[in-house]
Amino acid sequence: MFVPCEQCPLRRKPLFRPFTEIELGFVGEMKTDHIVVPPRADIIREDEIGGPVYTLFEGWAVRYHILPNGTRQILDVVLPGDTIGLASVVLGTVKHSVQAITPVTLCVLQGRGFSELFANHAALALNILQTRVEEEQRMDIRLSLLGRSNAEHRITYLMLETFDRLRQRGMVDGGSTCPFPLQRRDLADAAGLSRVHVARTLDSLRMRRLAEIQDGTLVIYNRAVLADLAGYVPLDQVSGKRAIL
C-alpha cells in the first residue's frame, strides 16, 4: 500500500494544519515508502544512527525507554499523524525506542530532505517546531503528576489525555467511547505502577461507574468526576493546528 500525500485522509482532519501546494509537493517527494509493522515489534530502537523519519498512518505505538534495571518506562503514546524518529535527523541518533502496540502502517520519509525544509519552507518548519513544543508541554504536565499523585490520578489522567487526543483526530465514537488497545502492562509502564495497582485501579473505576476498559475500548461514564479526580488540563486549552509530515 502506498498512499500519496495528496490523498492522505489524515491531512483532512481539522487537527492538522493545511499545506500549500508547494509544501505538499515537497513532503510528497520526501516520502519513499509505506510499510506495515506487526504488533509488539520495534519501529525504531534507542541509539540507532541515521534512521528514517516516519509518520504514523494507522495504528498505535508507544515511545519508551529501558531503565538500567531492565524495566520499561513508556514516555508517550504515539497516534496517527504523529512523527517518529525526528531526533535522528536533528541529532543523528535517538535516545528512545518506539514499539507498535497494534498493527501499524507508516509513511517513510527521507531525512536528508529536512535541510531543504528549513532552508526553503520556513512556515512549515516553524509549525513543526511549534508542534514539538506543544507536545513537550503536554508531556511535561502529565509527567509532573507521576511523582505527586496516586495510582488512580495517574490512570485517569492518561485515559482523559488519550481520549482527547483521539477526539482531535476524529477517532471518538458516540462522545464517550474510543479505541484503547493499551494492555495493563502498557498502562503500568506508562503510569509508573505495578500491574497489581493498575488492576485494582481499573476495578475501582469500573465499580464506581466512572470509566471502564473493555475489549480494547475505553468507555468514560463520568468525565467531570474523572477530570476533577485527575486534575486534568484539557488539551483544547494548550493545542493548536499541528504539523503533519
Care to describe what's here?
There is one protein chain. The chain is an alpha+beta fold and 245 residues long. It has two domains: 134 residues, Jelly Rolls (Sandwich); 89 residues, Winged helix-like DNA-binding domain superfamily/Winged helix DNA-binding domain (Arc Repressor Mutant, subunit A), CATH 1.10.10. It is 38% helix and 21% strand. It has a four-stranded antiparallel beta sheet with strand order 1-8-3-6. The chain has a four-stranded antiparallel beta sheet with strand order 2-7-4-5. β4 and β5 form a beta hairpin. The protein is globular and about 55 Å long. The chain starts with 20 loop residues before the first helix and ends in a 15-residue tail after the last helix. The mean pLDDT is 88.
Summarize the structure.
With 245 residues, the protein is an alpha+beta fold. It has eight helices and eleven strands.
The CATH topology of the largest domain is given as Jelly Rolls
Distance between the amino and carboxyl termini: 17 Å
The number of helices is: 8
Structural class: alpha+beta
What is the helix/strand order? Answer: HEEEEEEHEEHHHEHHEEH
Overall tally of structural domains: 2
* Major sheet characteristics: 4 strands, antiparallel
Strand content: 15-25%
Query: Class of the largest domain in CATH?
Result: Mainly Beta
Q: Provide the residue-averaged pLDDT.
A: 88
Going across the major beta sheet, what is the strand order?
1-8-3-6
Poorly predicted runs of 5 or more residues: none
- Large-scale geometry: globular
What is the annotated CATH architecture of the largest domain? Sandwich
- The number of distinct β-strands equals 11
Gyration radius, rounded: 18 Å
**Percent helix range:** 25-40%
Provide the CATH superfamily of the largest domain: Jelly Rolls
